[in-house]
Specification:
Elements: H1 3-9, H2 23-54, H3 59-83, H4 85-88, H5 91-109, H6 117-130, H7 134-142, H8 149-172, H9 178-195, H10 218-221, H11 223-256, H12 262-291, H13 293-311, H14 319-335, H15 337-347, H16 353-406
Helix pairs in contact: 2-3, 2-6, 2-7, 2-8, 2-9, 3-6, 3-16, 5-6, 5-7, 5-9, 7-8, 7-16, 8-12, 8-15, 11-12, 11-13, 11-14, 11-15, 11-16, 12-13, 12-14, 13-14, 13-15, 13-16, 15-16
């Protein structure tokens, strides 16, 4: 009997023997493919900035370019969770199909007018495909975990954070053609779809044998998972609204102090603040594997909540002060993100991990649409102090949820017993 046959015959029911190259090579391929595939999402923010300055279009039409991707992602995650796609199929092939379709949809956008119903439908389709990329990538990373799950998912989130920062660097540039941005993003997504098959699947993958519509409900029925997801929702309430509105705040603040080239300076600082979050995600993952998930998530959310509460009161403050607070906020606001996903992977049944990660991201991104849209109304009534103060409520409540999780018996399964 061969070693391969022996490993399969002694494996738990539903498990899958390791496939493809080893851990280091597979994770490197996964990181590259995840960022390349997600570039079709990142491109929407870049294109919005470029179209706004080059094409006459109604604000509602411009806003739809971004919101359609977000809505598509939510719809895609709901469908994926109900059908247990991430647990029933090879994650590499699901990733491949999603990336290729997203690349084709984005490529078509380069051949169409910048706004219109067809464009919105293609952006909606692109968002749906991202449901087969982002949570599936985390699922694939988790198959390789051996005492380092927080770091592995932290590396993935950190790489995506760098990609999320890129639109602000492009917005600071002049003369770029929005068609070129779409074209490059489409090629990146298509390349990632082909390359992901070169990655291996780790030994921790357990396949679900059939569709189970009750799986998704575990996210709220099980107390420990519910508290993790509540902590994640508090984190997400702040995260994307901060990323979306920081540049606007900085632009107005720099202009109020008479700083030359306020718009360019605001975009560059926003890029630096968001990109610095990659360091936060990596460091948060490394620390969480050693100190515990609830310890790191509580510390990160407490820090980001303080930054959010303080930032609004720093309007028109000296530029060096804004730089320090913005960078600290950018690092802390994402340092905990991967640990909520790692916690779900450790608390969930092995054959439900993909589905529950998908449910978590679905709920989080759905909530971001609320906080992002609320910001201008709150800022209009209460100023930036009220707007950013509203964002601080999310991580503050998230800290409470994670400390309650720490006292749950199931928390002993987090980070090898470090909670």
């Amino acid at each position: 009997m061969s070693d391969d046959t022996l490993s399969e015959s002694t494996a738990p029911a539903g498990s899958v023997a390791r496939q493809g190259p080893g851990k280091a090579i597979s994770l490197a391929i996964l990181l590259l493919c995840e960022v390349a595939a997600m570039s079709v999402w990142f491109s929407s923010a870049s294109v919005v900035a470029l179209i706004r300055h080059s094409v006459p279009a109604a604000p509602r039409q411009i806003a739809l370019l971004t919101s359609a991707v977000q809505a598509g992602f939510v719809a895609g995650t709901v469908l994926s969770a109900l059908l247990s796609l991430a647990d029933r199929y090879d994650p590499r092939r699901l990733f491949m199909a999603s990336a290729l379709v997203a690349g084709a949809a984005t490529g078509l956008l380069a051949c169409l007018p910048p706004v219109g119903i067809v464009v919105v439908c293609l952006r909606l389709l692109t968002g749906m495909c991202m449901a087969g990329v982002y949570p599936v990538g985390m699922r694939l990373a988790a198959t390789w975990a051996k005492g380092d799950l927080g770091l592995l998912i932290g590396l993935l989130v950190g790489a995506l954070t760098l990609g999320s920062a890129s639109p602000h660097l492009l917005a600071a540039a002049q003369g770029l053609d929005w068609r070129l941005v779409y074209g490059v993003a489409a090629l990146c997504a298509a390349a990632s779809g082909a390359l992901i098959l070169c990655a291996g699947v780790g030994p921790n993958l357990v396949r679900a044998p059939r569709i189970d519509y009750g799986k998704a409900a575990q996210a709220w029925r099980q107390p420990a998972l519910r508290l993790v997801n509540l902590g994640y929702l508090g984190h997400m309430w702040e995260l994307y609204a901060m990323w979306a509105w920081l540049a606007v705040f900085l632009r107005q603040s720099f202009a109020a102090t008479g700083l030359p080239n306020a718009r360019t300076a605001a975009e560059v600082l926003t890029f630096c603040a968001i990109a610095a979050g990659a360091l936060g995600a990596w460091l948060g993952g490394w620390l969480a594997d050693r100190l515990g998930r609830t310890t790191v998530t509580t510390g990160a959310m407490a820090t980001s909540a303080c930054c959010a509460a303080a930032m609004g009161w720093l309007f028109a403050a000296p530029a060096p002060v804004l730089v320090v607070v913005a960078l600290l906020w950018g690092i802390s606001v994402i340092a905990d993100s991967a640990q909520f996903s790692a916690s779900v992977a450790e608390l969930a049944e092995p054959a439900s991990i993909g589905t529950l990660l998908t449910v978590q991201t679905c709920a989080g991104f759905l909530l971001t649409t609320v906080s992002i849209q609320l910001m201008p109304a709150v800022v209009g009534k209460l100023g930036w102090q009220g707007g950013f103060g509203m964002l601080a409520l999310g991580p503050a409540l998230g800290c409470i949820a994670m400390q309650r999780l720490r006292r749950q018996p199931q928390a002993i399964r987090l980070a090898g017993g470090k909670r």
